Amino acid sequence: MNRQRTTIDMIAKQAGVSIATVSNVLNNKGRFSREVQDRVRTAAEELRFTPSALIRSLQKGRTNVVGVRTWPYWYSGAASINMELLSGIADGLTASHLDMLFYMDVPEREHRNRARMFMDGRVDGLVLAANLFPAEELQELANSHLPTVVLYAESVPDGLGAITVDNRSGILQAVKHLAELGHRNISFVGAHGSHDLDERADAVLEALRFYGLECGRFIRPQSYNFDADVVVEDLLHGSVRSTAIVAGDDNHALKLIGSFRHRGIHVPTDLSVVGFDDAPPAATTANLTTIRQPAREIGRLAVQFTVDMANGVSASSCVTTMETKLIVRGTTGAPPTYTS
Predict the structure, then answer these.
(1) For the chain, which has fewer Cβ within 10 Å, the N-terminal or C-terminal residue?
(2) Apex CA 149: angle with CA 143 and CA 154, to 5°?
(3) Is residue 62 scored above 70 in pLDDT?
(4) What domains can be seen in the chain, in order of their start residue?
């Protein structure tokens, strides 16, 4: 069933005025008597008129829409900060009276140039996860002057806003916590695939050296969706077993804990595990000791930076690093009295 869309000429006919008068009244332009304004607005309401968002955006030069592109759904896993990040972005958009155009990759779809998808005027700004775009496309976005905030990037071109987290401080807190519990041999598991995971891996080695601790196994799976059973077999190999593991993120940690449980290895009685991110399942399902990054706050701030840049604030003023914090729960404790 199709209903004809109400047009301003239909309103003009019902109100007994010109089309120009209808346009001006609805756009708050010109001076008209209260009686004329009431007739136009009453006719528009009775005919259920809704103005064209496309036309208004062309008139104003803005769409009031921010493009958002975060990690694909199959990549981020259940213990991901993705939903917290998106919730924060939604908070920011609501506070700024903006809408969101959400982009997400799907399997087998290829895009020759993702950056150009956003340069056709459909959005006023862009928030994106760094590792989804190659460096040349980030540069193209910077050259386009589209207000863009990049999340979790090692570096961004001049002209882009950026928000990162203090991975090194977070890892240092985690290793210090384990050292104070008495752990002396600590392993790391963190996949390749992002700047954050790489930085956390480097930070573990630095922290172990700083506290004079041994690095047991240093495992970097090639895929984020790694086989936890294979990794656990690697962790258990050798004459000296680590008494604690620092994981690249909460998803890593939860997968490892599940695999250990199947082998009768209890956390934290036999082995301590620390995650990173403090994704919702860390507290709700795993009681996981982890490093919290303020994902929801990052989402809100990303929108604010985008709005600021659209209003003329320089991109260099829209760059920051967010603090991280150790959250101690139930997956860390003193090491066992002996290991094999």
Answers:
(1) N
(2) 90
(3) no
(4) 8-51 (no CATH), 65-165+294-323 (3.40.50.2300), 167-293 (3.40.50.2300)
